[in-house]
Amino acid sequence: MMNPITIVIVSAVFLIYGGLNYYIGLRGWQALFSYIPFLSSKVYWPVFSLLSFSYLLSRFSEKFLPTVLYEWLMLIGAYWLAFMWYFLLVISALDLLRFFDRWLRLIPIEQKRNLNPALGSAVVIMVFGIVSYGAWNARHPQVNHYDVTIAKKAGSLKQLHVVMVSDIHLGTIVHNGNLTKMVNMVNELKPDLILFAGDVFDENIESSNKQQVSDNFRKLSAPYGVFAVLGNHEYIGGNAEEAVTYLGEAGVKVLRDSLQEIAGSFYIMGRDDRAGERYNGVQRQDLKTLMQGVDPALPIILMDHQPSQLEEPAGQGVDLQVSGHTHAGQLFPIRYITNRIFEKDWGLLRKENFQIIVSSGYGTWGPPIRLGNTPEVVDIMIKFD
Q1: Between β-strands 354-358 and 159-165, what pairing exists: parallel, antiparallel or unpaired?
Q2: Which of 52, 208, 211, 273 minimizes the number of CB atoms within 10 Å of its CB?
Q3: Start and end of every Calcineurin-like phosphoesterase domain (predicted)?
Q4: What single-letter DSSP state applies at residue 355?
């Protein structure tokens, strides 16, 4: 049974979400759909309500619905979240313009008082265009290359070719076909080392075709191995332990507050995600403890899903950190928020001897849409002194 605080929070979320969708639906009815002769409000509102609440319905009814129906409901709802976001931005911008026009007097009075189907059609076409481009963009990842120098000797190694991927979010929406494309992109780069910086799976591992996914991971090839860390979504879904076992069986070694010395030349280190404490009550090991016994003369590469509290790895002598989590905002203009939350929400940041590369991620969470950023595979060439 949910505690009172949880009930209040869930109720507030439903009320806010429902209110925003009612606002969109009302404006849609006033400006466009009420002008369609054969469409009545008794049909419009039930259909609109089912559409707008399909994502939440799928979340709460997963255990009761047939798999096919659940997945379709989830997919429709995920796309609606993107439509909702951009309808909200466009409609609220128009309403604000109408409000401030009391003083600006740019809009003729008769147009200001009436929401006409021409305006409604223009808004619908605009939002459909935005979401369509975002869906196309999300399906066309690119390779982004970085050249990094670490001022340490790495045994006999002069350079190290690393490919890093974060935030695949395998599950109901991002499926094995997306993984196949990613595996091919990674193998074409012929890396020495492959790293997965968290959120390999979305909340629902069961929705993936496990055997096909496992076969795909086994196709990855790198002389120094394939390593991963957990992200927050493996914990949110309660599947962290299963994800570790599953990836291990597929040839991917998950590092959870642990490290491995590679060929006597460098360390690869992985931190458990900070979400673990919230979902399983186990606090992750601090980096100072994790670094005990490490030879500081060798290069240290750290995987940590969330690029937070960067002063800790910088102060502990980490040379290069790779992270994800931010999705670079995923949906414009959310990146203005992630850019304020994180010291670096995408790209390369250098802080004296410490460097971090944050990926925008390969997959998507929620809406399979990307605007204002591009999904990526990160190609890193590290040169040692």
Answers
A1: unpaired
A2: 211
A3: 161-328
A4: E
Buried b (16+ CB within 10 A) or exposed e, 2-34: eeeeeeeeeeeeeeebeebbeebbebbbebbbe
* Six-digit token string for 279: 């979902």
CA distance 320 to 378: 14
Classify burial at 257, counting beta carbons within 10 Å of its beta carbon; exposed 0-12, middle 13-18, buried 19 or more. Answer: middle
10 contacts: CB under 8 Å, gap ≥ 6: 2
Question: What pLDDT score was predicted for residue 158?
Answer: 93
* Distance, CA of 227 to chain centre: 19
Tracing tokens 């080392």 back to the chain, one arrives at 193
The amino acid sitting at 93 is A
Domains of the chain in start order, with CATH, are: 4-137 (no CATH), 143-384 (3.60.21.10)
How many Å apart are CA 348 and CA 356, to the nearest integer? Answer: 6
Cβ within 8 Å of residue 369, ≥6 positions away: 79, 82, 131, 134, 135, 137, 138, 330, 331
DSSP assignment, residue 270?
Answer: E
Alpha helix (H) residue ranges in 240-295: 240-249, 275-280, 287-290
Tell me the pLDDT tens digit for each residue of 85-144.
999 999 999 888 888 877 766 665 555 555 678 888 999 999 999 999 999 999 999 999
Q: What is the DSSP string of 104-121?
A: H--S-HHHHH---HHHHH
| Placement of tokens 């076969």 in the chain | 215
